Amino acid sequence: MRFLYVFFFLCSAYVHAQKPKEVLNWINTAKSENKDFYYEIPFEYRNNEIVIQVRIGGQTYDYIFDTGGYNNITDAIQAKNNFPILTKQTVGSSNKIKKEINIVKVDSLHIGKLIFHDIVALQMNFDESPTIKCTIDGGLIGASIIKNYIWQIDYPNKKIIVTDQISRIVNLKQAVKVPVTFNSRLMPYIEIKINDKKEKMMFDLGSATLFSMTEKIAKKHGIENAITLTGGGTEGGNGVIKEPIYIINSGKVEIKNLLYLNKPIYYTSTNNEPLIGNPIIKDYIVTMNFKDDQIYFLPINESAVNDGWSTFGFTIEYNDGKSKVATLLKDSEAAKAGLQVNDEIVAVDGQKADCLDYCQCKKIYSMLLETKNEITLDVNKNGQTQKITLKKQKIF
């Protein structure tokens, strides 16, 4: 299991002509000329990311909608449009990998009918971030654009409503309203309780895990019984770090009077922010009124019980022409059955494990492992094919 969250922070260690505060002010400024508007924008939930279409330079690109990120463009978009370069800066991603990049001024950016002019963006290269490359051909729509307007994420109907008038959102009377605070980079934070202990967590829709923490914060909640996930790592906009991932039982998580029970909380040694990620949109219609420091959660299914975590305990990736076990949960039924990281998967439920490339396999295998409750693998063990049948296991 790989988890992805992609937000960026400016590092003051490297500056050319501009001071970090001046550059940050550029990036934080994103205003539209649209007034008194209400638009509905379709989105896809692809590779556990919210993907919308954005038009730049007369061409449409797929972008991740990310409350925890900066607006950016790719090297390819910059090569086509040759936007003015304002300065260079060193930036770090969520897993602490740093790179030097250009800060550019984009003359216009369209999200449906919502138009922005002279947007300052980070010029990024996602070549070393395979999940991002499989998901989009553009970049991120980030905090400065999201901060100024009301955005409602309606997962059942796969649409985002954006407006500048909160009165145009009609379904908020039954929703739970939660206050939001922001850091200097306009990233949003909400206060929650984990087993009655207060924590402040970034509300990061660029994160594909429901809950993740820094190692320091995880220790406050007890890591004695943490489960190890081997073979994985953290992926940010600047690349991948292979490292053990640890998982603890959340116990009781309260977001005001909203409740999750016994969910996995992920942490690694490189995590630098506690996060609530975009899987929350599967449980609640989320309305972000960040200009008034508010966020609303409307339950999608009143009878849903957000209790527990079930998994097969492994994931599959396609590399070097073969499908292989990518990650494995220690002491899971998959591990006890003899499955190991890098085992070659010959077939899944009798179908040959064959894909065109990494991206196609990622989509196929993620869907299989999410939707099935029982699975049979043909595994190549030292030249011999071994059948392993597994049922989805409730871990917590």
Automatic annotation (TrEMBL):
PROSITE patterns: PDZ. InterPro entries: PDZ (IPR001478), PDZ_sf (IPR036034), Peptidase_aspartic_dom_sf (IPR021109). This is PDZ domain-containing protein. It comes from Flavobacterium gossypii. Residues 297-383 form the PDZ domain.
